[in-house]
What does this fold into?
Amino acid sequence: MAKKGKKGKGQEEPVITRVKFPSKKLGEMFGIVVDILGGDRMRVFCEDGKHRMGRIRGKIKKRVWIRRGDLVIVNPWEWATESQDKLGKCEISWRYTRAEISWLERNNKVPEILDINNITF
It folds into this structure.
């Protein structure tokens, strides 16, 4: 009888068949979660070099746990005005798993500005 619960030593990493990419037509981009602020809000460093206030999309809010240092896809809000004392806003629509991140790194799909190995918080 198989044990239920946490993954054990005998289990292998899943085989990656398809990886979601940000849609440039819709304005999506890669980002890294820098800080968790509470209330489903996070500070995200985006691939365009800006820090934004991220909000977890309702569809994934209770299904996916997002932690500091995770690689995500964000949709910047064009209608939210940025100022010097306020961050721009965005919506977090996807979180990558470890296996997907390693596939993206091997195939050089992650932008250089988002160096996952040297994340500075």
Observations:
- The beta strands are 29-38, 41-46, 51-56, 71-76, 88-95.
- The chain has one helix and five strands.
